Amino acid sequence: MIKIQIEDYYGNDLCSFVANPFDEENVISAFGKFDGCDIADLDEEDGMNVVRVQLNNN
Fold first, then answer.
1. 5-25 b/e with 16+ CB inside 10 Å = b?
2. DSSP string covering 29-54, please?
3. Over 90: is that where the pLDDT of 10 sits?
4. C-alpha distances out from residue 17 to 3, 7, 20, 23, 53, Å
5. Which residue among 12, 32, 48, 51 is the one 20 to 30 A from 22 at the CA level?
6. Which tops the pLDDT comparison, 1 or 41?
7. CA–CA separation, 39 and 7 (whole Å)
8. CA atoms 51, 35, 19, 5: torsion sign
């Protein structure tokens, strides 16, 4: 598991989530423990799965 921490240009934490890069069965189950954000969309572009993350707070 990997914790992804998103911050702005000034180093302020905006959100975080946990990703399991080894989960090849189901993209949704590869993400969890969201704090300050959620999955906005799941898509496929150029044969690659894309997960868009949306901030919950501004």
1. eeeeeeeeebbebeeeeeeee
2. GGEEEEESEEEEEEEEETTEEEEEEE
3. yes
4. 6, 12, 10, 15, 10
5. 12
6. 41
7. 17
8. positive
